[in-house]
User: Fold these one by one.
Assistant:
Number 1:
Amino acid sequence: MREHLVNLALKLVGCPYIWGGANPWTGFDCSGFIIWIYQVFGLLPSGDWTAEELYRGHSLCIRKSGHSVLPGDLVAYGEKGGRIIHVMLALGNNLVVGASGGDHTTTTEEAARRRGAQVKVKPLEYRQDFVGILPLQFPGE
């Protein structure tokens, strides 16, 4: 299932970053991207979560940098020991994918295009505020 999840996520590369966006037809923000992908695979009940809620609300075991990161794991960025402000999806090989480059002012496709805000593949620690990994538990693992 991890391979299918990653393949779907990669098909969304280039989709615009839209603040509050949560689907491929109108665009994604960082948490909207994770929520949509996880819900497609039945891994998250319906609802809307912030990056903070995704990380704190579902964390049972956190792996820090240097430990194995599996495709589909949630990667969190923010203040060490504080608020989580950004999430991405692990691809493996120290890469992540997710909606990035925008903020609360990125509310249109034009604004996203001007900023280069879209779903992108990046190195795992592309931000200095990397916090940790939330392992994704697939049914049957």
Number 2:
Amino acid sequence: MTRLTTQQTQRLERYLLAQRNSLLNEAHEELTRATERSYEAIAGEVPDFGDQATAASLADFDNAIARRHIEVIREIDDALIRIRTRRFGRCVECDSPMEYARLKAFPTARRCVACQNLHERTFADGATPSL
């Protein structure tokens, strides 16, 4: 496999920066909306337990969306750091160059396809083995 060209890297960097800005705006809007919506506005003045549960679920959902945006922003920031340190496009496991098609489809990829497959098989369920 060949290393990314400067033009390919710049194209991916511009894409990552645009995605980062978009996600920052979305996360800000989600957090603003979540803080502006009071519990009473969701559940009503005299809520029953069902209304309380629904309001709590909606608040948790809003927070989960914002947390997911923040997680993706961190992944993008990590990719941007790899671009600046000239490590972008190299697998963090085996150090082989990644194909442009993979990075174009998934620009925050940290591993080549082979290492990612191994990683997913190894950590598929996230459970800690025990005897």
Number 3:
Amino acid sequence: MKVTTILGSPRKKGNTAKALEVFEAEMKSRGHKVKRVNLSDKTVKGCTGCFVCAKTPDAPGCPLKDDAQKIFDAMIGSDALVYATPLYCWCFSGQMKILLDRHVSLVTGYGTASHKSLIEGRKAALLVTCEDKAEGNADLIQTVFDRMSGYTKVNITGKYIMPDCTTPEKVAAKAARTGRKMAVDFCRA
């Protein structure tokens, strides 16, 4: 299985990265190919709402020149996707939100019988780290992920919320448990 992980954290060695690293290592140890995209290293411009992309249903036809096309190519060439983000204001990090907005170029015919997505059928998981508890804190991001998954027609394998995250050193055991569980769930789905 080819897996693309997308780290939406501005900290490449933070809490979210810690759990994602465990998942990636577990998947590699099981013989799967894993490619990570660190959004903090990429330039992804905000969607302009021009809908030029809708004119090319068999490819992401976005006219913006940035790193989004390479990210989308990796996603399209994968069997599975992991969206990993710290919780910012009850939702995705800014880096991840911009990429999610650009997912419009992956979908055509939304709301019609001809609705299709270039990542349709892929396995997808959400990994969220948050400083506080999950209840009343990480509920909105899960709803957004559910709706985005329906929009892009991916199959959710799991949503993994790591509450009470402070520093990578203090969450190491929790990150290890979460990363391993994600890998097990991915391989079962």
